[in-house]
């Protein structure tokens, strides 16, 4: 079948006298038949895979051919396996909505090559993203291409999954956990899957399966936040947070994962260290804690977690990462400014973007499900629909640049 694909690709290029790098794409069925889809007259984003298994620098060859130099030698033979993951600033669990913000942390471990051929085994990273970079709304939201190469497909999948899981990615929501979930899915590993994969594999479930337990992440976040505050204290900095010489009520901190319920952590500092009173986690003991790292012991196993922080639209987030997964939590403020509360009936932006079209005006009467406006960002357009019947009492103007959570319209009672 591969030989037939090669023959068809050569015939397509020859038919139009094409010279240069190009990619011919086909769709194949389960019977081994295939059908022409399109030809891209350029290198594609997946070209590192071909480079790694052939040992050829396709970018260099493309430039050579463009200057009139011939391709010399026999056709290359492939060796080993290479697989590429496209790390995107998007939320697969929210209809793949693109995300924007500042990358407070970004690091991929174990990289053996950057932008160049990988040997028989290793990780190649093609990326210009660094910690501190701002991910905007005007360009494709790809942060990096992470490519694993190994002698077998299974080993390449395992290497790529472990590398992505251990990567530090803080500040914006990405598809990292989804990629890890797919790379560890038995059906994907078997090779018996097709283009309908996500029709029967919920991205939210695949993502959730790679995430850290929310109660455990909240405990780690609370202890780290307490340590951070004490490290910044200017009075009695040697005393633990909330220290009393008599027993008092536990201290509390609350966190939330997305739209889930709040998780309140109650803890008390004692002579034996930090004691967690809520939530109840079996045999959990805090071994050590600092602003950016917490070590816990549970069921005899010691685990160290990295803790990072970021700010999104004035909301504080804590990123907890360990060998058993990662999770980002929103910090629930102790006191809420009433001026920040949205008006009842508010429709907010689900993603960053520009209001490309507006279908109604203030004062119009609308019905549930009626399109009010459209947001455009990163090659995507998202319709904002009325969630109930009512009167449009507020509406953002066409052409307005908005951030996630910004109020786009208010639909109230007539």
TrEMBL record:
Residues 1-203 form the Biotin carboxylation domain. This is Biotin/lipoyl-containing protein. Residues 1-67 form the ATP-grasp domain. InterPro entries: ATP-grasp, Biotin_BS, Biotin_carboxylase_complex, Biotin_carboxylation_dom, Biotin_COase_C, Biotin_lipoyl, CPAse_ATP-bd, MCC_alpha_BT. Gene3D superfamilies: 2.40.50.100, ATP-grasp fold, B domain. Keywords: ATP-binding, Biotin, Ligase, Nucleotide-binding. Residues 338-412 form the Lipoyl-binding domain. The keyword Nucleotide-binding applies.
């Amino acid at each position: 079948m591969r030989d037939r694909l090669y023959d068809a690709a050569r015939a397509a290029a020859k038919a139009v006298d094409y010279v240069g790098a190009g990619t011919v794409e086909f769709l194949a069925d389960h019977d081994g038949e295939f059908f022409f889809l399109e030809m891209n007259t350029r290198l594609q984003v997946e070209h590192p895979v071909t480079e790694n298994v052939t040992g050829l620098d396709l970018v260099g060859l493309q430039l050579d051919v463009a200057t009139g130099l011939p391709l010399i030698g026999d056709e290359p033979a492939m060796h080993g396996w290479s697989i590429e993951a496209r790390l995107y600033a998007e939320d697969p669990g929210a209809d793949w909505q693109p995300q924007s913000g500042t990358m407070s942390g970004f690091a991929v471990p174990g990289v053996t090559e950057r932008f160049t051929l990988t040997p028989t085994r290793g990780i190649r990273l093609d990326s210009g993203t660094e910690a501190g970079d701002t991910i905007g709304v005007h360009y494709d939201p790809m942060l990096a291409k992470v490519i694993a190469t190994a002698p077998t497909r299974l080993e390449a999948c395992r290497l790529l999954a472990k590398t992505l899981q251990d990567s530090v990615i803080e500040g914006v929501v990405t598809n990292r956990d989804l990629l890890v979930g797919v790379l560890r899915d038995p059906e994907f590993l078997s090779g018996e899957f097709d283009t309908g994969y996500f029709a029967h594999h919920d991205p939210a479930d695949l993502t959730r399966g790679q995430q850290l337990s929310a109660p455990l992440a909240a405990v780690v976040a609370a202890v780290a936040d307490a340590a951070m505050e004490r490290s910044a204290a200017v009075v009695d900095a040697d005393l633990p947070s909330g220290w009393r010489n008599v027993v008092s009520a536990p201290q509390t901190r609350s966190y939330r994962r997305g739209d889930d319920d709040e998780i309140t952590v109650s803890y008390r500092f004692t002579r034996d260290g930090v004691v967690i009173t809520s939530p109840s986690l079996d045999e959990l003991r805090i071994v050590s804690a600092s602003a950016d790292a917490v070590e816990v012991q549970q069921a005899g196993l010691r685990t160290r977690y990295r803790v990072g922080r970021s700010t999104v639209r004035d909301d504080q987030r804590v990123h907890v990462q360990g060998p058993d997964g990662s999770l980002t939590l929103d910090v629930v403020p102790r006191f809420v400014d009433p001026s920040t509360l949205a008006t009842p009936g508010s429709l907010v932006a689900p993603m960053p973007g520009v209001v490309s079209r507006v279908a109604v005006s203030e004062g119009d009467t609308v019905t549930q499900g009626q399109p009010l406006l459209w947001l455009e960002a990163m090659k995507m357009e998202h319709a904002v629909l009325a969630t109930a019947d009512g009167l449009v009492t507020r509406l953002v103007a066409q052409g307005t640049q908005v951030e996630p959570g910004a109020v786009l319209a208010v639909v109230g009672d007539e």
